Amino acid sequence: MSEVSAMRSAKTIRLSSLGLKVLAAYVVGALLSIALAVAAAVWMVENDVLADLELRERVGTLASKIKFDTNGKPVRLAASEADLDWLYESLPHETAWRVLDVQGNVALVSEAGGAFWPAGGSAPRLERDTFVFKHNGMTLHGATESFEYQGQQWLVQFATSERLMKLIQHKFALPYMGIGIGIFSAVLIVAFGLCAYITLRYALKPLRGISEAAAAISPRSLHARLQTEVVPAEISPLVDSFNRTLERLDQGYRVQKEFLGNAAHELKTPLTLIRAQIELMEGDDGDRGALLSDVEYMTRQVQQLLLLAEASEAHNYDFTTVKVQEVADEAASYLQRMAEAAGVRLTVSATENIEWKADRGALFTLLKNLLENAIQHAPASTTVDVEVQSDALSVRDWGPGLDPAQLPLLFERFWRAAHRRDHGAGLGLSICQEIALAHGWRLTVERAEPGLRFRLKNTVMSQPNA
Predict the structure, then answer these.
(1) In terms of pTM, does the model score above 0.70?
(2) For the sheet containing 452-457, what is the strand order?
């Protein structure tokens, strides 16, 4: 079930990706642009818009290529245009050109001759424009271009049959245009898509850094703030809001810890006075013993609350080079009477003289709590083993252990197993976890069959003494 949830979560993240959305928008925009270009090209061909443009361009070219004699009369086309005379000679019924003066008199005509053009009543238009006429039952399209030579105005007309235009457009222009659009589309999507992808990766890189920095923030690092200088201007207000939220959380968290520490301090003195008053009471020793037991339980709980508040403050630690085996021996000696009363034997083993960078008092408290927890659950005539290695140490008991589902609950505050010998407050292992986190260590628990094994992994520094 968890794998399915993880897959759904990953799928949701991908679908909500800003970069993916921008790339998708680019691809859709590119495809839409291509579709519009194709539709425009087809529309221009089907509505003779492209044909009119071609006619105007052609007649304009002809006007610029007319050559005149010394008398200012048009006599021929320029050499570059003369190379196309075969077109007018081979297709005299399909295409033609002529030069006229402003009165409509023909001065120069192509191979098709004057019969190709409309009869005399259809005078050419003086303005630059296109026109349509009939010849031998065919529809022809023409265009007129005016130009000036030595102060005299001249007209050039070019015409071609509709069927020749359609043949060229549908059999040659459209297919090659389609090939051109296809090549252009491929280049557009690949080249610009790659550029968009690289640009997005570069633009979103600061966001990934900010995300990693935010993920690394924990209750122990609420003082950290996200950098706003490296993020895009559009995201900067969101980062500023997140930083202000962190400030409020940091302040609230500090107030809670200060309250916890102050409350624990304030309760120590009244409990001491109550204990003294109970010890001076006269009466049934059974009642007095029960009251003293309750006061001892409350005193222990207050002391652990105070330790928990101190363990969560980084400035309470004094890091030095500590010989781990010596601290383990001290913790075992400190709890020796408790172990003897429970019929449990404590053993400490180390392969070599290990030194860690740690707060000696905090490490002692951590080992003491782990050993105390193990003694409370170990059966009589068994051992609690402490093993020190170069980068880890472990505390193992041979008790009944716990169900796998209960293992994650061990480090929760005020949670207690059902088979403890005493009435602890359920804070000892939470204090151990706080100390481990403050040192950058990792404290875990596993079933040892029988019993439990607590393993403290030094992920920051673990060097044996040479």
Answers:
(1) no
(2) 345-350, 383-388, 392-396, 452-457, 442-447
